[in-house]
């Protein structure tokens, strides 16, 4: 296996202690074995061979697929949710797509895939940008209460990054509402003080 080692540098995949990065790098990449790997035939459920033979197809977690790709032990394809069919669906009906069901780490995983030598990987970046732009306004409008939609129904369709944005939007709305209540209280207090002073001046005038 060491003879298959290449000179390419292994890409860095996020922060070691980040739970989001751990979950993202555990997402699967469709791979094809390119060399014989002794004693690992049991990994291929469709074969009874003792060794893992060239041509065998396995879905490997990104953290494992990356070094094997780097050493040319496997080749890989773009996961189906980033392929042309799904890119077209996202382009046409971005808001309606259930990203959580398709790929809960859609944006994070897509960004990491671009570091790998995969066919058509160059199309992923534009797809991520377009999907984000087309969905962002709707997510923020719902978070701010501008659109009347069942928030539970919305959030279950969001990927991890979008849920974070939605939560930040709700937090900003609540902060603004608290600020408005404080301002209203201050205005009401100021009005009471002004009225009290007017009454006091009127009372003094009457006494004179």
Automatic annotation (TrEMBL):
- KW Ribonucleoprotein (keyword) present: no
Organism annotation: Amblyomma triste
- Protein name according to UniProt: DNA replication complex GINS protein PSF3
Which keywords appear in this protein's UniProt record, sorted alphabetically?
DNA replication, Nucleus
Q: Report any Pfam family annotated for this entry.
A: PSF3_N
Q: Which InterPro entries match?
A: GINS_bundle-like_dom_sf (IPR036224), GINS_Psf3 (IPR010492), GINS_Psf3_sf (IPR038437), PSF3_N (IPR055221)
Presence of the UniProt keyword Ligase in the record: no
Q: Where in the cell is it found?
A: Nucleus
What GO terms describe the biological role, i.e. biological process, of this protein? Answer: mitotic DNA replication initiation
Per the record, GO CC terms?
Answer: GINS complex
SUPFAM superfamilies xref list:
GINS helical bundle-like (SSF158573), PriA/YqbF domain (SSF160059)
The task this protein performs is described as:
The GINS complex plays an essential role in the initiation of DNA replication.
As for family, the record states: Belongs to the GINS3/PSF3 family.
Assembly mode: Component of the GINS complex.
- Annotated DNA replication complex GINS protein PSF3 N-terminal domain residues: 17-68
């Amino acid at each position: 296996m060491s003879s298959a080692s290449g000179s390419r540098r292994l890409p860095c995949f996020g922060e070691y202690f980040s739970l989001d990065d751990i979950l993202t790098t555990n997402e699967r990449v469709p791979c094809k074995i390119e060399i014989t790997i002794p004693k690992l035939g049991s990994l291929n459920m469709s074969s009874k061979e003792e060794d893992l033979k060239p041509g065998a197809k396995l879905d490997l977690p990104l953290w494992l697929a990356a070094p094997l790709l780097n050493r040319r032990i496997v080749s890989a394809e773009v996961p189906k949710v980033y392929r042309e069919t799904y890119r077209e669906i996202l382009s046409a009906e971005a808001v309606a797509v259930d990203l959580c069901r398709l790929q809960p780490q859609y944006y994070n995983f897509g960004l990491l895939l671009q570091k790998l030598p995969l066919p058509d990987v160059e199309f992923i970046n534009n797809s991520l940008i377009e999907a984000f732009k087309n969905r962002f306004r709707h997510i923020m409008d719902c978070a701010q209460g501008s659109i009347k939609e069942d928030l539970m129904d919305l959030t279950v369709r969001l990927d991890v990054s979008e849920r974070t944005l939605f939560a930040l939007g709700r937090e900003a709305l609540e902060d603004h509402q608290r600020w408005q209540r404080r301002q209203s209280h201050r205005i009401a207090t100021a009005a009471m003080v002004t009225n009290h002073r007017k009454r006091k001046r009127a009372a003094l005038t009457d006494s004179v």
